[in-house]
# Entry
Amino acid sequence: MVDEGVSAESKDNMTSRLTYVGKLILAPMVRVGTLPMRLLALDYGADIVYCEELIDHKLLRSTRVENEVLGTVDFVLDDGTIVFRTCEKEKDTVVLQMGTSDPQRALEVAKLVENDVAGIDVNMGCPKDYSCKGGMGAALLTQPEKVKQILTTLVQGCCKPVTCKMRLLPKMEDTIDLVKIMESTGVSAIGVHGRKKEERPRHDVNCDAIKLISKSVSVPVIANGGSSQIIKTFEDIEEFRNLSGASSVMVAREAQWNPSIFRREGKLPINNVIKDYLKYAVDYDNQFSNSKYCLQQLMVGRSLEPEAKALLKAKTLRELCEVWSMEVYFDSVIAARQKAEDLRKQRVEAVKKRKLDDGSTLYTIEIRYNKKNFSPMTTPKLILGEWCRDNLLDPPVYSMEEHTVHRLYQATVNVDKDYFSSSCWEKSKRAAEHNAAIVCLRIKSVYDGLLEHEHSKKNAREEKRMTEKTNKQTTKTRWEHTECKPGGPFR
Ligand code: FNR
# Structure
């Protein structure tokens, strides 16, 4: 990167512990710094890529899931939202930036992700209200004791290098005092955005202040804030590093508009960059709205071009691909993924059966509830409850097993003498019960977990109900002969 000698040494270290000297870095950017953009920046020449800021509370509500088909590690909320997606390709270079105001929460986040990332960063510069009101971001700049606690806890408790990213304080002496406190905690580097909390991108970046900070500490300083004013080309990145006397440079906006800023050979035409971006977005099944947002950033200043207008209208990832004539690529990836998914299902869903002492059978499948596979108004538990009613069975009875150390749950559901359970552990009891319900639905061939099947089954159930209703009016129905308690659960 910036310095050939340092770069060779640092590349060696890439496979071990991340270091922050002589590095070209993709800065953290909310919504922009998702997996496709990070991989693209790495392809073009970035050495380290920061993810978008992720709030500690949200990450702690997520569960780590390995997505075998995509080859990713996902941190997923109960409703299927992916908070953070990463993959092997960036494992040694990705830094997770968190928003936090609490040392213990910060450490919990670090422990959750530390085996899947190369470094941990704490945002201490975000001036936005939502951040500062929660005591995060730039609010930390005026709480040196809190800064010390958070960073010390992280450095001592986490196996990956810890950094923080800050802004300048109103007074330079206070800024220097703060960075010295940061350094004393054992952080591996300090990112400095050379502006104060109130300053906006239109204000000049203060290279002299970054220089003073670099001189005051021996820990590597990462200069940031140079986009558009100083950095417009690859060579300018080195210029910015020289002006600020820093060890490394972190680029945000210039990379947001064209990540090939990291190319030593010069920037690529934006349409080439967009096609490269789309490939990653498709390969890693990046969320449509996020992909569209990132493409809009790549198209900034080009609103009159026909692609920009078509981009605005696009409503699916495939339509985004169509704008750049990449629908064939999209279709081929989706077809290959479907095949891989089918194979995985056949393998994973191998049903394990165990006879229990009372003669009943316990069926176990490794399966997890994915909200996306269900229409918005229904859940596995609802479908199972309905199915039991329709088949004149007692309502499902759920029991729960708790892993006390990790606070994880596994549910078993009892339906019609047998038991059904998923081998997956969940953070919430609700998700665990849905898992068990899905296992039962699969064994009973009520529902196989695919949305279109669910719809057709649901329609079939509706039809069956209507037919039975009609029959009831004309002849005696089955349940009138069965011993169903009056006022019981069935009708
Ligand atoms: C940012 N920035 C930012 N900073 C941070 O620490 N965490 C974040 O999640 C974000 N999010 C974010 C989103 C977007 C769209 C932009 C443009 C910026 C600030 C960013 O990392 C950087 O500090 C500033 O943009 C200054 O650097 P540049 O743009 O001059 O290179």
In short: The chain has three domains: 8-268, 351-443, 454-479. The CA atoms of residues 480 and 486 lie 11 Å apart. Residues 1-15, 451-455, 473-491 have pLDDT under 50 and may be disordered. The longest strand covers residues 189-196.
